[in-house]
């Protein structure tokens, strides 16, 4: 069994990005392989949703979170209060994490040693994802820095890397 990292934008996606992520993840799980992602909104959320609906999360899903699940849930609702994301987005993604935890708590890797969700913990999460995967599928929207970080790390480690780039105008 191989494990493929799924990385991509959390801020901006469209129907094309969504379809591409869904097709890629379906192909991976139908082949009997698994996916690793960072549990974020956008691309990560879509990838996790596909595994929950069409795969076996117990054997085909790993979520690498930058901080402990409980603390990340609080962080996302705080970000919603700050207006960075919507309350609906915070509720949807935290509900998804809780569903994964109910199905298979061992599928959530949230002990990277960080107590705050910040650039350092997110990039450390990216490092761990790339180290533990066999290959990376990156869906990079508007040259997103976090996705570029994962791509660069995967290339440095000699991993199989597939990149799809998108440019989406800001609303």
Strand share of the residues?
15-25%
Per the CATH scheme, the topology name is: Rossmann fold
> Roughly how much helix do the residues carry, as a percent range?
40-55%
Query: How many strand units?
Result: 6
Poorly predicted runs: none
Rg (CA only): 15 Å
Short synopsis of the structure:
The protein is an alpha/beta fold and 171 residues long. The protein has helices spanning 15-30, 43-54, 57-60, 69-81, 87-104, 119-132, 145-156; strands spanning 3-8, 34-37, 61-64, 108-109, 135-141, 160-166. The protein has a single domain (7-142, 157-166), classed as Rossmann fold (3-Layer(aba) Sandwich), CATH 3.40.50.
What do you see in this structure?
With 171 residues, the chain is of the alpha/beta class. It has one domain: Rossmann fold, CATH 3.40.50.450. Helix content is 52%, strand content 18%. It is built from seven helices and six strands; from the N terminus they run E-H-E-H-H-E-H-H-E-H-E-H-E. The protein has helices spanning 15-30, 43-54, 57-60, 69-81, 87-104, 119-132, 145-156, and strands at 3-8, 34-37, 61-64, 108-109, 135-141, 160-166. The chain has a six-stranded parallel beta sheet with strand order 4-3-2-1-5-6, with helices on both faces. Helix 7 (145-156) links the parallel strand 5 (135-141) and strand 6. Helix 4 (69-81) runs antiparallel to helix 5 (87-104). The longest helix is centred in the middle third of the chain and has 18 residues, at 87-104. It starts with a strand and ends in a 5-residue tail after the last strand. The mean pLDDT is 95.
